[in-house]
Amino acid sequence: MKLIVLGAAAGGGLPQWNCGCRNCADARAGVIPRMTQSSVAVSVDGEAWVVLNASPDIRAQVDACAAMHPPALRGSPIASVVLTNGDIDHIAGLLTLREKTGFDIYATAAGLDILRSNSVFGVLDPSLVAQHRIALDVPFEAVPGLTVTPFAVPGKVALFLEGDSLNLEEVGEQTVGLLLEDGTSRAAYVPGCAAIPDWLLDRLGGVDLLLFDGTVWNNDDMQRTGTGEKTGARMGHVPLNGELGSLDRLADVEGRKVFIHINNTNPILQPDSVERAEVLAKGWDVAFDGMEIAL
Q1: For 3-155, where are the alpha helices, taking DSSP H only?
Q2: Calpha distance 194→208 (Å, rounded)
Q3: Of 202, 212, 153, 150, which is closest to residue 181 (Cα–Cα)?
Q4: Which percentage of the chain shows pLDDT scores above 90?
Q5: Superfamily, domain 2-159+167-294
Q6: Which residues contact 245 (CB under 8 A, 6 or more apart)?
Q7: HSE, side-chain direction, 13 A CA sphere, residue 294
Q8: Where are the domains of the chain?
Q9: pTM over 0.85
Q10: What pLDDT, on a 0 to 100 scale, did the predictor assign at position 219?
Q11: Which residues contact 52 (CB under 8 A, 6 or more apart)?
Q12: Can you tell me the distance from the alpha carbon of 293 to that of 32, in angstroms, rounded to the nearest whole number?
């Protein structure tokens, strides 16, 4: 199994268009690398690829990745797209993939309802782009040789679907993780997760690779940096730091561990920060655009 991180950032990317925080300023100045919004490509044979979440930056991501280039006059190595939720930064890229090249979309019923209820997604020709409903804990083959099993993780509905009543740690089809298996290796992709209960630890046991939600360091990152009022919990993301944070809760998960979906305010983006040093000391990597992992 080969994985390529097409985009490592959370929604808004790095730099975010309207942000002048230290990380965004350093990214603009070339001090730290720029990052596009979260998406990962996976393949077994290196020819047919499944893209996990279609980032709004997918055109630039495809252009920057040779494995994603057209193999002929027309066409694409992208055989399918699997959605983990209905967030704008995970579905908006589908609108870019509309130029009459076929691929398959896989999403839960909740995800497909979003696509089918919004007429703008009608630009995807149904005779070329088939939409498939996936069910929790039921495996399917996204590309030849790669089995994907969606599983529920705590999370919330997409921002544009929020109502007066909101469960920030709802468990159901609105937010899923993905278990990827090729018969030899097992990887888990969880770009959004609001909490880490014991049952989720059990689900992640035995993986060779874990790509996990690295959005915020502390729950109040945005408040600390003066960039906003929302907490990580309000956005549906568990922090890295703290007693209930991912660094402590996932400490006993074996295999390679990589933080992905990293917000522009997260101090782990600074190479000399104490927070990044702690992440590395605890055996984690920090994803970056173009990162390649072979299992």
Answers
A1: 22-29, 58-64, 88-91, 109-117
A2: 23
A3: 150
A4: 87
A5: Ribonuclease Z/Hydroxyacylglutathione hydrolase-like (3.60.15.10)
A6: 238, 239
A7: 2
A8: 2-159+167-294
A9: yes
A10: 84
A11: 39, 40, 41, 42, 81, 82, 84, 178, 189, 191
A12: 21
